[in-house]
Amino acid sequence: MIEVLTERPTAYPTVRHLYLFAIVALLEVADRLASPRALDALARGAARVAHALSWKKRRFAEHSVTRVLGPLPRAERSRIVRGMFYTFWDEVFGLVPRRWRGMPESEVTGLPHLQAALAAGKGVVLWESAHFGRRNVAMQVLRRLGFAVHQVHHALHRAGFAADSRSGWLRDRVVLPALAARDRALVEDVIVLPLSSSLAFTRTLLGVLQRNEILGVTADVAYGERLVTLPLFGEPKRFTTGMVSLARSSGAALLPLFCTRDPDGRLHVTIEPAIPVGATSDREADLEAPLRAYVKILERHLRRHPEQYRDWHYPWWAWT
Questions:
Q1: CB-based contact 211:124 (threshold 8 Å)
Q2: Which among 1, 51, 210, 254 has the fewest CB atoms less than 10 Å away?
Q3: Strand, coil or helix: 202
Q4: What's the pTM?
Q5: What is the pLDDT of residues 204-234, one digit of tens each?
Q6: Which contiguous run of DSSP H or E holds residue 221?
């Protein structure tokens, strides 16, 4: 694991650190629940409470849903926003492994795409979404099927949560280590993207691919040295070209990965076909084309399951 956190700690925790500490404490309580049904009930209860109390979040989410998807019947807009809250808490409690014991079996679509990519012998980059569906659960499903994933996270982003950049005792000694431990329980290894660019980090990623292993990387988080802005549902969003560049130089396959859940509880893990990566003389076009293809795939999944996008209240175009 590469770990770089060089800021000088502050004496007082930020509101964000206190919030993440509360999440960590809640997960510790959830670990002690014996029944997967009890954990499921806890996730649904937390979602209902959050929905009832977060009026500002609801308002922002409804505005974003209308802006992106157009005018909808009030009941449909409400269903999407309620689903956003439930998907978030369902993903949170997906960090408790016993949650999925005894739950309906997951359906995996596109497994031959992953098997074919590994058969090619140049490694695989599974492109996950940081904001859609249930990424943490997808990692557990793949692990049960015998696929070891080396998860890549930003230094301040663990287990699906981002801590702010202000260092502090609570963040550095409690929150990030606790979330990192949960990450490591889901995957083969966690590789941490340092706060500043690092040749050693790039070599680590290349080493994984050269051993014909699997990297799990979020495709829709703007961490990296080179960013491009592309329209997602017509709204600008930034993407990083780092993994495309890595695939271009190594020959690794880029496979989008999504995980959704039906109302009856059944999980669906979808591994899309490999996105072609060019190696022409036009490097800029080669880097941008796979991202455009990914955006189209992400849009398709979002349109099919808008209630499983966890960040309608946090519009992506506001931060471009």
A1: no
A2: 1
A3: helix
A4: 0.89
A5: 899 999 999 999 998 888 776 788 999 999 9
A6: none
Which residues touch 48 (CB under 8 Å, ≥6 apart)? 85
Residue with tokens 């940081």: 130
Rounded distance between C-alpha atoms, residue 118 and residue 208, angstroms: 12
In this predicted model, what pLDDT tens digit does every residue of 156-179 receive, in sequence order? 677 777 777 777 788 888 888 888
**Domains in the chain, start-ordered, CATH in brackets?**
15-319 (3.40.1130)
pLDDT over threshold 80, residue 128: yes
For residue 130, CA distances in Å to 49, 74, 127, 184, 307 come to 23, 27, 10, 17, 15
Q: H-type helices in 149-259, by residue range?
A: 169, 176-186, 199-210, 242-250
Q: Are 210 and 141 in contact (CB under 8 A)?
A: no
Q: Which of 194, 288, 212 is nearest to 250 (CA)?
A: 212
Nearest Cα neighbor of 306 from 67, 99, 138 is 67
DSSP-based three-state secondary structure for 35: coil
